[in-house]
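User: Can you predict the 3D structure for this chain?
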Amino acid sequence: MLHLHHSWLCFRSWLAGMLSVLLGLVPSASSNISTSRPNILLLMADDLGIGDIGCYGNNTMRTPNIDRLAEDGVKLTQHISAASLCTPSRAAFLTGRYPVRSGMVSSIGYRVLQWTGASGGLPTNETTFAKILKEKGYATGLIGKWHLGLNCESASDHCHHPLHHGFDHFYGMPFSLMGDCAHWELSEKRVNLEQKLNFLFQVLALVALTLVAGKLTHLIPVSWTPVIWSALWAVLLLAGSYFVGALIVHADCLLMRNHTITEQPMRFQKTTPLILREVASFLKRNKHGPFLLFVSFLHVHIPLITMETFLGKSLHGLYGDNVEEMDWMVGGKGMGGWEGGIRVPGIFRWPGVLPAGQVIGEPTSLMDVFPTVVQLAGGEVPQDRVIDGQDLLPLLLGTAQHSDHEFLMHYCEGFLHAARWHQRDRTTWKVHFVTPVFQPEGAGACYGRKVCPCFGEKVLHHDPPLLFDLSRDPSETHVLTPASEPVFYQVMERVQRAVREHQRTLSPVPLQLDRLGNIWRPWLQPCCGPFPLCWCLREDGPQ
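Assistant: Here is the predicted structure, written as structure tokens:
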């Protein structure tokens, strides 16, 4: 069983990239693991704090079910996400490739997909582990969050849909749970849109008033038609600014089963039971296997929707309640290359095969899940493209003592911010070329922003780069210098050479998250009624 989490690195941010769990449900009766074709369950949590699980050191948050997985399985303590935000991280997780290779990044600050009705998404020529396992006879399902795109040219082409990327069954959110999906103070889009609509209203209202004054005083030779149209558009924009929150909820906060919208907007108090019921139904239907099920939690992303059963029960407010609800379902955000935003939990459990209670401190990556499950299913890793993940099975079984990751690159959008070098039997070095500006100083957050920027005046370019020894300083608090570290220049030279070698393997691809692919297009908007009357409740239970 694989489960990803990290807990004691809460020094930078309480928001981590994600938690992921891989479960081999069938004990291996074969001495040849490569032919065992185990059932595989992957669990992923969104924005889970790296210090929020008991098995990684938290003694004030109750996560007994996750802790039990760690007791019965293998726990990874140097597990790294390929990005610190959900869209690029999930692309890397599914493909085993840095998101910059598939174009699941931006160069203008759009770090995730902004709308369900945008045209960007996981390219159709990318190969996911679900696609390979489906070809090997596995039943493949995704339940929960997707956030990797939906449509390309029409509201029904579903070119980026999970069913187009190897999943037989999908139930969940095609987009992502956002602060705009419920009454929540941290609006992610509403405030910005309201400001733009109000500005346009003021401009058109001024134009209309000027035309009216000019018409009445005969100073401007104009008919009443442009006056009426200007006034009409001004009224529509003013009305839009008042209703934009509701429009966002109906546009993005919806549930789908396969290609059919079942709820628009979502009933949040019902979502957790519906997802659990769907998981149980999938497992029952496919109990004879082989199957791959990816359960992608909506937890613990804002707006922290929590059932009444868990409200007020934790010691950490609504966030703690949400974490504990997520744990019940089992049984720093956007920080560039800093450990607090990219190091995540990792637990693998396979009864009868993997040793219980083992802890591995070698560097591993979320991208490693791709080659690992492909090999377990008897498939072949694609040879026509660069795969950055490494098969974890030798490390998990103890037949290999070291990770195959000598170097790992840390991107922020399409910009390389940092790199790590695992010097075997010695230390793990971390080099930061660019870091976001934390304000106020030492706060561990980017002033005035929920997500740290990747470029511009709000980042620092370091010359020489910052150097840390993660083996002795996992919280990255002590910057090494040529005066304090005798091998400073040797480390820098070796890491920079590895960066150059890595960059030579990159090929130009369209950036899916840039403006053209990441703006709302009405004709791509999924709607269960005549647009814009997007409202329905078609939930009739798992199928």
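The CA atoms of residues 17 and 294 lie 17 Å apart. The longest helix spans residues 224-252.
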